[in-house]
Design brief:
This protein is mainly β. The two termini are 21 Å apart. Strands 1-9-6-11-4 form a five-stranded antiparallel beta sheet, with no helix packed on it. The chain has one domain: Jelly Rolls, CATH 2.60.120. It binds thymidine-5'-diphosphate. Thymidine-5'-diphosphate (TYD) binds next to strand 4 and strand 5.
Amino acid sequence: MHQAQIINLPKILDERGNLSFFQNEHHLPFTIQRVYWIYDVPGGEVRGGHAYREMQEFIIALSGSFDVILFDGKEEKKFTLNRSYYGLYVPKMLWRSMENFSTNALAFVASDSFYDEQDYIRDKDIFINEIHGAK
Ligand code: TYD
């Protein structure tokens, strides 16, 4: 799972309020095609139980906090996102879940692709088969 990583973003400190940003190629290992966000998550809910065959993402907790659990077919790793000045780069072919959302958590996601349901693997057994090369 060497590729999944926290990416620190610029933080412009200012007495009037802080500012962070990211832009294509400078901070992410891909070009952004789409952004979406997840909000109003009821306590205890889990989002995103799936993998992408090709799509890559960058996930930020713009407000509040939540955990992103990544599984590469062998080991599972938990990343807690709770600041708006860093995010998690998620390469393709990792099973990912998002859980433990705080009240008012806002998950902001930048993707390298347009939405494509065909790229999703929504069955964990199929994911495990594909990752081990047994198609
Ligand atoms: P999904 O990716 O399954 O959500 P999560 O991974 O957070 O559980 O998407 C939920 C629904 O929203 C699904 O019906 C597809 C739709 N959707 C879009 O139409 N466009 C998008 O960019 C995304 C991310 C989802």
